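Posting for a labmate who doesn't have an account.
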Amino acid sequence: MKKHRNRVIRLLGFISSSQLKVIFLILFLCIIFQVLIISNIQEYKKKNDISAAKIYGESIASGILLSLNHSIETSKILKNIYIQYGDQVCENFDQLCTLFSHDNSLGSLYIAPAGIIEVAYPESVNAATIGFNMLKDPVQGPRAQLAIDTKQITVAGPHRLVEDGVGFIIRNPIFEDNEFKAFAVVVLDWHEFVIKALNQVDHINSGYRFAVWKEDNSDTVTDEYGFIFKDCYGDISRLVDIPIEVPNDVWHLSIEPVGGWSKSANVIPESIISSVMICIIMVLLILKMASSAKQVYKAEHDELTGLLLRNAFCNYVDKLLRNNPNKVYTVIMADIENFKQLNALYGTKKCDQVLKYLADTYSSLENCIYVSRYGSNSFASICENEFVNDYAVFEENCKKIKDNSPIKNFKVNYGEYKSVDHKLPANVICDRALLAAKSIKHNFEKNIANFEGPVSSKLYKTNMLEASFEDAIKNEEFKVWFQPKFDAKSEMVIGAEALVRWVRQDGTMVPPAEFIDVFEKDGLIVRLDEYVFRKVCIYIKAWQDAGMEAVPVSINLSRVSLLHEGTIERYKQIVDEIGILSFFVPIELTESATTADRQIKKLTVDLKENGFRIHMDDFGSGYSSLENLNLLPFDVVKLDKSLIDFIGDPGGDEIIRHVIELAHFKEMKIVAEGVENSDQLEFLRKLNCDAIQGFYFSKPKSSEDFWDFMEKQQRYKMGL
């Protein structure tokens, strides 16, 4: 209740709380006044209406029972005649039954020795009924057997009759010396039976409608007179319920006025006046606030999910923390993993359904104070105390959420920031919780992570790396190393791959795995890539100036740099400025960076047009490699070490064989990375692999060591 009240107050935030109290007080008093008047009048009128309806209903019930008893007496007459004359009754049955032809409600008459109909009246029902076994029929059998067991008359129906139509079946069992002999059966024509019953009263001008029903009836029949037989009383209320006791059964007659019972529409002038007053007051107030409230709501809420947008969420959280300094709160972020891929796979419409489903699910959590669609694929919420107390229960709830989702094949990572610092702004708090969620990306054994321990330590390291970047560039702490590439046949160096190492001024080294991912996420990789590219160009120019034979040195270019505006133009300007050919600095693009799309294809074409050669790095490590080979203009394909490690396995050998054949067919060169032994080298030579890169020939070398290495090779070629 408090939660809903807060939402209303936020929606009408421009109205003071005292004004709202006055409005609600007036509204409350007017409603109480109106309700008291209406309830008293309606209660009095309803009692009179019920009393009159009950009197009239009892007359209808008497007419029904009178008509039914008349038919029961007919069955008794048939029974007595059969007892007296036996089978002779069957021989003269038609003539006998003419005695009852004046009664239109009697649909048909039967004699059923041993439960099997032997004779029937009138003749028109003979074909459908003669030989019919009442005891064997799944519908009529139980009531027929009941008549035998109790030796009493049974009344069953209304039923869809064998001879067509709808009616009641009255079975009068006949015994001789305590042995069942036959049934004397009277079938009532329901239509005529109703007419006969209603003739007992003035139905036409009564102003009532009726429903006669049985609690255990499975058949439903409605006729023109308004009698309804069914299991429920949906069409006529059960306010007046008159039981009609018949043999082995109880019928119920419900009755109500044709227009229904009196409702609150019959109000007195005072109630009308109070309603008008309420409407006038509320309309004036609502008209004043509606326009502003709509604009406020639209500005604060996401159109798709109806949740608070990021800025509005942060504003409310800041106020909450500021106004409740002594309370403990937890912020949790829900981040959908690989949401762009889900959009590509299932389509935007299906993914929108997932977002709406998750929004509804998170909004229904009782302990959440505010819930927000924080980003395109993330949600934020704040709750009092801890969000997760039992992690086993939390994991089970995560599974239920996923199982009930419109899409099953996705993962939501949750980041929890417990006991948030009230001094921090809400956006910083949310970013920390989001960092915790992203720390378990691709970890399918874990659904939630806390911003503490490893996660907070990782944030500290990330901040330190980012803060040190400018000084590292200025002090040239980033060093270029070279991984030589050897001709597979001559074993001479024909090129190299540039690698970056971070060596601090104190001599400590920062592993590439620690800083590359960080700089890719924050965009600093663009400057680092350009720094390495310029250094390599300078080295190549120095080799040429020294009279050495320069070899191409390929440079890894991240997808972030490739897509950064103006990268190709700047790189072309650098090679021209330093005075080397673009041929000597091939660009290596990782397989994941070349996931084919129009923008990547255009950029690779632009690289080629500016004289750069293009290498596909890490081929075989995942993604759509073969598609990229076909669509993008690569000059060299570098087989990933994960493929080379499969050499010796029949399946792995065949894959490498086909890849090399395909690359050569496309007029591309092949470089094998990660070659570590002679068996791998010999296998690759047999397949005409073009170049080898790996520890078997050489580990990565510093720029000084690689210079010396190239000098020795040149002297060797010259025979010195």
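Reply:
Got it, the structure tokens are right above this. The radius of gyration is 46 Å.
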